[in-house]
Write a structure and sequence with these properties.
With 430 residues, the protein is α/β, with parallel strands linked by helices. It is 27% helix and 26% strand. The strands form 7 sheets. Strands 5, 8, 9, 10, 11 and 14 form a 6-stranded parallel beta sheet that branches. It has a 5-stranded mixed beta sheet with strand order 16-23-22-18-19. Strands 15-17-21-20 form a 4-stranded antiparallel beta sheet, with no helix packed on it. It starts with a helix and ends in a 7-residue tail after the last strand.
Length: 430
C-alpha cells in the first residue's frame, strides 16, 4: 500500500513539473502588426451532425481552446463569413407578423442551424474576430434580439439553452419595465448567466421621422438628442448589467452625425438591418444583419445558405453593383412601380406590379423577389391582379432589382424584372 501511494504522489509531481517547466511554445501572433506573440491553448472538440446534401452523419473536429463550442475547424479570418440574425417577438398562439414569430418556427430554425453544422458564436467572439484577435469556422451565425420583449425570456431563452446557443440582446432602456410584454432587468440578468449578452438599442427607440425632426431643429439640438438616445442609453444599461460596447440602430436608421459620435460613447460596433453576410473587413459601425420576419421564412433560409455567399464589402471591392440587371434585360410587359431606372427616396418605397394585361395568368402563383431581401411577403390582390410590397426599413443599397414570377394556367412559367435606384440623400416623411 505504501509503495502504491508513493507511485501516485510521484506521478502527480511529474505532471505538475511538466506544466511548470514545459509551457506551451511562444509563437508569433498571426493577427498582430507589432511582432507580438501569443500562447496557444490546446484542446479538441468534435461534433456530429447530419449533412442533408449527402444524407449521412458527418463528424468534424476543431482544434481550439478548451470548451470550444464550434462545429467545424477554424480557418483564416478572411475565409469566415458570419450571418447575423435579428429577431423580435415570439408566441406559440398569437397571430404571426413581421415582428412576431411562431415559437415553434424558432425552434425549427435553431434545429436547421444544428443540422447544417453551422457554428453559433457569441457577440464577444464576433468582436474578437472582427478586430483580429480570434479565428472562427468558415460558416458562423450570430443571434441577436431587439427591443426586450418578454417572450424572449419565456419562449426563446429555453430554446437557446437547450441548444447551447449564445445570444445578444439589443435593449432600449424605456422598455425595461417588466410590465406587460416587456422584460425586467432581473430576467435579463438571469439570461446573462446562461449565454446572453447586452447591447444598446437607444433610449426610446425613435423612428426615422423622429430623428429627422430633431435634425431639422439644428445641429446643437440634434447632437443633444443623439447624446440622450445613444449615449445615455449605454450609461443606463451599464448601471444595470455591466460593460456595454455594441449598438443597434432602430429600424436601421443612421447618418454620419450618429456614426461619428459612436466611439466617443464607448461603442466599438453598431448594427443595421441590411441582409448580407459579414466579412472580417466590414465597417464596424455599419454591420449588416438579416432581420428574420415571422411572415417570411425565406429570409432565414437565405441567411444560412453559405453556398457562394458574397458580402456587401467584397462585392464593392470587386467593382460589382448589386441590384443592377445586365444591360439589355427586357422591360416588364406591364406597369410597375417604381418605374424602370427611376430614382426614388431611399425610405419605404412601395414596389408593385399590375398584371391585369397578362393573358392566362394564374394569379395564385404570383410572387416577388427583391435584391437584398430575397422572396418578400408581397400582397397579391386577385381582384385588381396586382402584387405589392413595402420594405419594412430604409433601403441603403443604391440599386434594387425586382423579379416578378408567375405561372400561366397552362403550367408554363414566366418572369419579368426591372431595376431602379435610390437617392440616399432624400427620404420621405412617415
Amino acid at each position: 500500500m505504501k509503495h502504491y501511494l508513493y507511485l501516485v504522489v510521484l506521478l502527480m509531481c511529474q505532471l505538475t513539473w511538466g506544466q511548470i517547466f514545459d509551457p506551451p511554445p511562444i509563437i508569433p501572433n498571426p493577427f498582430a502588426t507589432d511582432g507580438s506573440t501569443y500562447t496557444p491553448r490546446p484542446g479538441r472538440s468534435s461534433a456530429t451532425f447530419v449533412d442533408d446534401d449527402v444524407a449521412e452523419e458527418v463528424t468534424v473536429t476543431a482544434t481550439a481552446e478548451p470548451g470550444n463550442r464550434f462545429r467545424a475547424p477554424l480557418v483564416e479570418r478572411e475565409k469566415t463569413r458570419v450571418a447575423i440574425l435579428g429577431y423580435h417577438n415570439f408566441s406559440y398562439t398569437r397571430p404571426v407578423s413581421e415582428m412576431l414569430m411562431r415559437t415553434t418556427e424558432l425552434r425549427e430554425q435553431m434545429e436547421s442551424i444544428r443540422r447544417a453544422g453551422i457554428s453559433v458564436i457569441s457577440m464577444q467572439e464576433f468582436l474578437e474576430w472582427r478586430f483580429g484577435e480570434r479565428r472562427l469556422p468558415e460558416r458562423c451565425v450570430l443571434i441577436t434580439l431587439d427591443d426586450g420583449w418578454r417572450s424572449v425570456y419565456t419562449d426563446a431563452y429555453p430554446i437557446f439553452r437547450e441548444y447551447g446557443y449564445p445570444f445578444h440582446l439589443f435593449l432600449y432602456t424605456r422598455y425595461l419595465t417588466g410590465r406587460g410584454d416587456s422584460m425586467s432587468p432581473a430576467m435579463i440578468k438571469e439570461m446573462m448567466q446562461n449565454g446572453a449578452s447586452v447591447g444598446s438599442h437607444s433610449a426610446t427607440h425613435p423612428y426615422p421621422s423622429t430623428w429627422r425632426k430633431h435634425e431639422r431643429a439644428g445641429q446643437e439640438a440634434y447632437v443633444a438628442f443623439i447624446d440622450k438616445e445613444i449615449g445615455d442609453s449605454r450609461a443606463r444599461l451599464e448601471q444595470l448589467f455591466g460593460p456595454v460596447n455594441t449598438y443597434c440602430y432602430p429600424g436601421g436608421y443612421n447618418d454620419e452625425t450618429m456614426v461619428s459620435r459612436m466611439s466617443g460613447y464607448g461603442y466599438v460596433a453598431a448594427f443595421t438591418v441590411i441582409p448580407h453576410k459579414v466579412s472580417c473587413n466590414v465597417d464596424p459601425m455599419r454591420i449588416d444583419r438579416y432581420m428574420v420576419f415571422g411572415t417570411d421564412p425565406s429570409i432565414f433560409r437565405s441567411a444560412i445558405d453559405f453556398r457562394g455567399s458574397e458580402t456587401r464589402t467584397t462585392a464593392a471591392v470587386a467593382g460589382a453593383q448589386p441590384g443592377l440587371l445586365p444591360s439589355g434585360t427586357p422591360l416588364p410587359p406591364f406597369p410597375v412601380t417604381p418605374r424602370p431606372a427611376e430614382v426614388v427616396p431611399c425610405e419605404l418605397p412601395t414596389i408593385s406590379a399590375q398584371l391585369g394585361g397578362v393573358p392566362g395568368i394564374d394569379i395564385s402563383t404570383v410572387r416577388m423577389q427583391v435584391s437584398g431581401f430575397g422572396r418578400v411577403p408581397a400582397k397579391v390582390d386577385a381582384a385588381s391582379r396586382t402584387i405589392q410590397w413595402t420594405p419594412p426599413c430604409r433601403i441603403y443599397m443604391p440599386y434594387i432589382s425586382v423579379h416578378i414570377l408567375w405561372n400561366n394556367t397552362d403550367g408554363s412559367r414566366h418572369r419579368a424584372e426591372w431595376s431602379f435606384s435610390t437617392d440616399q440623400t432624400v427620404t420621405v416623411e412617415q
